[in-house]
Design a protein that fits this description.
1 helix, mainly beta, Rossmann fold, globular, single chain
């Protein structure tokens, strides 16, 4: 039996993002606990920035779930409508 009492801060499960035919992020699982420091490394075009944009709500994932401190934030957005757009 595990006695892991670390608090989960950010958890991504099976996160995928597509832009047309391009799969930018493909079924990524990620877990960051309280007091951890982590980095995401990879070659140019590997999907690092897209994954970060998914975690921050700038893009919604096409599949999977994202949780922040246990709360589902998968479909919450941080994008604001531009002035002059129908919703801004």
């Amino acid at each position: 039996m595990s006695s892991d009492l670390r608090v989960e801060i950010i958890k991504a499960e099976g996160v995928t993002k597509r832009f047309g035919e391009l799969i930018a992020v493909d079924r990524v699982d990620y877990l960051l606990h309280e007091n951890e420091v982590a980095g995401i490394i990879g070659s140019n075009g590997a999907g690092k920035t897209t994954f970060f944009n998914l975690l921050t709500g700038y893009y919604p994932p096409d599949e999977g779930a994202i949780r922040y401190q246990g709360q589902d934030i998968t479909h919450k957005t941080t994008r604001r409508p531009r002035k002059g757009s129908p919703s801004g």
